[in-house]
Amino acid sequence: MIAAAGQIATPLPTAAEQFPDLAAAVLTCRRTADEHHAAWRASWAEPHDRMLRAARALAWEGHQAALRRADRCIAAELLPALLGGAWRPARRGTGLVTSRTAGLLCWPLIDHSRTFRRAETRGATAWRNSLLITEPYGTFTPDGDPAPKALAHARGIRAEIGAGVWARPDLSPWNPGGTALVLIAAGLRPEDASKFGFVFFT
Asked: Are the CB atoms for 201 and 8 separated by under 8 Å?
């Protein structure tokens, strides 16, 4: 059954069933985030302890490596399944958030965002060859429903930019369980969202 905008089709496929590599990477990110938080608390309690500061730095590097692995899984597993073709993370500094679109591509749907491009494309980044992955807080209510502000913002993005917005609460590497994985891209078909366990916002 196809879910209307803002509705969740049940049952959703589990992340491990559809995207096992990314799901495993998200679990690793949860572990490395916990390790970094524990190391930070320990070094904060003993700020002059060099070994604790070094452990905190090492834990941070481990978490960053886990996040990079998750991005590789997004490019290699998630995006080809959703949109076909080969994808890659864009270089730092390239993106779809410009002076023209900054008023729309912002909170509550844009946080911890990065651009992915089709691997075969060259030239300028544009919606025809690129998309945004973003990981905001507050995309869903505590009951698991789409947050009204996020839903209204997604409709504005569709109206002004022409890009669709899908979200999934269980595939975010940034803060698993706290942030959602949001996909903003051209060519997203409403009838496909529930097949991949995503909620169709617009």
From this structure: no
Kindly report whether the peptide bond that precedes residue 11 is cis, defined as omega within 30 degrees of 0: yes
Q: CA 31 → CA 47, 59, 150, 154, 174, distances in Å?
A: 24, 10, 28, 31, 11
SS3 (DSSP) at 199:
strand
Structure tokens at 16: 């491990």
The structure's pTM equals: 0.89
3-state secondary structure of 168: strand
Provide the 8-state DSSP code for 95: -
In tens, the pLDDT along 22-45 reads 999 999 999 999 999 999 999 999
> Of 80, 92, 61, whose CA–CA distance to 21 is shortest?
80
As a three-state string, the secondary structure of 110-160 is: CCCCEEEEECCCCCCCCCCCEEEEECCECCECCCCCECHHHHHHHHHHHHH
CA dihedral 171, 77, 160, 104 (to 10 degrees): 40
Q: Which of 183, 136, 178 is CA-nearest to residue 157?
A: 183
Task: Count other Cβ atoms within 10 Å, centred on residue 122.
Answer: 7
Letter for the amino acid at 187?
A: G
